[in-house]
Amino acid sequence: MKARIASIDAFEILDSRGNPTVRVRLALDDGTVVQSSVPSGASTGENEALELRDGDKKRYGGKGVLKAVANINATIAPGLKGLDPSRQGEIDHIMLELDGTPGKSKLGANAILGVSMAVARAAAAAADLPLYAYLGGAGACRLPVPMMNVINGGTHADNSLDFQEFMLVPHGAASFAEALRYGAETFHALKGILNARKLSTGVGDEGGFAPNLANNDAACELIVEAIKAVGLVPRKDVGIALDPAASAFSVDGGYQLAKSGGGMKTSEEMVELYERWLDTYPILSVEDGLGEHDWKGFSALTAAVGGRCQIVGDDLLVTNTRFIARGIAEKACNSVLIKLNQIGSVTETIEAIDMCRKAGWGYVVSHRSGETEDTFIADFAVAMGGGQIKTGSLCRSERIAKYNRLLEIERELGTAAVYASPF
Asked: Residue 399 to residues 43, 149, 180, 250, 356: CA-CA distances in angstroms?
């Protein structure tokens, strides 16, 4: 590629929760100008790469990102000026060397990722290719099945549900556009059901409802009712995905279901709970069903139900090849949640996906609870071809932006577009 990086300029913007995050503006010497914005998580694994915050309580309650911005403008930008943006791996490794720490604690994963994403986008633009085609090649034609967060609990909501996310999975549709319709119609039917029962229809960070229900089971029952209300068939047309985010209620080696009044459960009892739920509800995927230190429990869960359900590691594996390798060796999961900002660069994220492919594991490209209008992960999900994306509910524009971008991609691909269920 003849174009070279001419300038990189970072600045502070706000994410969907009103907290600061990093935006990077990158210009090439051929006149190409792109931007990228970095998401931020609330439910985070302790082994995630460091999101650098300022810590100045007088400014944004300590959540400012001016240090990360300064690291880009003063350290990263001079080191990358004049480089070919198509050399993604080389550029990402230069940034890793400039940081020099295992968890990106010097420059910040939010600084490195913002530049890494901008470099990929700039190279795609200079090559006159859509981002998904640039990253994925000529074979990038598979639209992902979405996991749509419609009921929230846990750390994402102040209600009676211990489990963090209950999601729709419209995997039985013939196209992504039809899947989006299945999801939207079910979402609105669910709202109508909640209204009729005088339950809250306010939405949380990811656009899901957060009603106070009698127990965790009730969330699954409501979703099944909503699916049927729009004339769809549970499991066949639309299934359920769970993200209990069990690390948040892991206590002293057990699991305290305090919000629902479910009491204390052992790891073995949690596995039994999921087995019962799989017998009762159309559940296709369980993410972080156990805590991030409960490797033995994850292996037991996968042995018990992994043949009929996707078992996804998020906090356990943090998009990191070191932990994914352990997960493969211990048969702890059969799928990985892929979050760019958990590891901090495009190159390292692709390396994590490559490891999943070699092991025959699934992988789910994911947003974070603190998002922006940046649609990078929509293109990235198509480029990586894994057939799954997790990007929130059917409201809030920062979530809908990703869905709308996928509609655009499906339209661009035309008859080459593939929508195929991994379940």
From this structure: 17, 10, 12, 29, 26
pLDDT, tens only, 250-294 = 999 899 999 988 899 999 999 999 999 999 999 999 999 999 999
Residue 226, φ and ψ in degrees, nearest 5? -70, -40
- Verify whether residue 339 is a known catalytic residue: yes
What DSSP assignment string belongs to 237-248?
TBEEEEE--GGG
The structure tokens 């996968």 sit at 302
* Each residue's pLDDT tens digit, 129-143: 999 999 999 999 999
- Number of helices and strands (H, E) in the chain? 14, 16
Shortest CA distance to 252 belongs to which of 287, 294, 288, 215? Answer: 294
Catalytic residue among 48, 51, 185, 206: 206
- Residue 236 structure tokens: 């066949």
DSSP 40: B
Number of residues assigned to the chain: 423
**CB distance 76 to 98 below 8 Å:** yes
Instruction: Give the predicted TM-score (pTM) of the model.
Output: 0.97
Please name which of 176, 161, 254, 245 lies closest in space to residue 209, comparing C-alpha atoms: 161
Amino acid at 141: C
Sign of the dihedral defined by the CA atoms of residues 147, 152, 153, 154, in that order: positive
On whether the CB atoms of residues 286 and 297 are closer than 8 A, the answer is no
Distances (CA, A) of 371 to 73, 84, 155, 319, 338: 23, 29, 16, 18, 15
**Sign, CA torsion 246/247/252/258:** negative
Within a 13 Å sphere around the CA of 37, how many CA atoms are in the beta-carbon half?
19
The pLDDT tens digits for 83-130 are 999 999 999 999 999 999 999 999 999 999 999 999 999 999 999 999
Which of left, alpha, beta for 285 (phi over 0: left; psi -120 to 50: alpha)?
beta
Q: Among the options 104, 339, 390, 402, which is catalytic?
A: 339
Q: Are 239 and 283 in contact (CB under 8 A)?
A: yes
Beta-strand pair 20-28/33-37: antiparallel
Q: Considering only CA atoms, which of 42, 113, 117 is closest in space to residue 71?
A: 113
Which DSSP category does 75 fall into? I
> Which of 53-57, 249-253, 273-277, 414-418 is least confident?
249-253
